[in-house]
Write a structure and sequence with these properties.
The protein is mostly helical. It has one domain. It is built from 3 helices and no strands. The longest helix has about 35 residues.
């Protein structure tokens, strides 16, 4: 029981990192689909989300692989929950039947 309590902060941190990473990804896709410069949105978002996530994993693990594993578990749990509950981006409608139509 004591060991479980030691890994709860790492699990919670992994969940927060997952919310930041996957929530940021969802937000980026929503903004990138309607942006005039989607490549800038996606590239800057990728770099920022990855930097935050890798830094968080590094700091929480503190050289302990068990804490790193607990953090990763929280990260993956958030991914599963967000994949299930967040709505998908609305597809861009293309008129493939008549390409000359306005």
């Amino acid at each position: 029981m004591n060991n479980l309590l030691l890994f709860m902060p790492a699990l919670a941190t992994g969940m927060m990192l997952g919310i930041i990473f996957f929530g940021g990804l969802w937000w980026t896709v929503q903004k990138g689909l309607v942006s005039a410069h989607p490549a800038l949105w996606f590239l800057s978002s990728l770099l920022l989300r990855t930097a935050i996530t890798v830094t968080g994993f590094y700091l929480i693990s503190a050289g302990n692989w068990q804490k790193l594993l607990a953090c990763l578990l929280g990260f993956i749990l958030v991914r599963l929950v967000m994949t299930y509950f967040l709505p998908c981006a609305k597809p861009i409608e293309n008129n493939l039947e008549n390409p000359d139509a306005p």
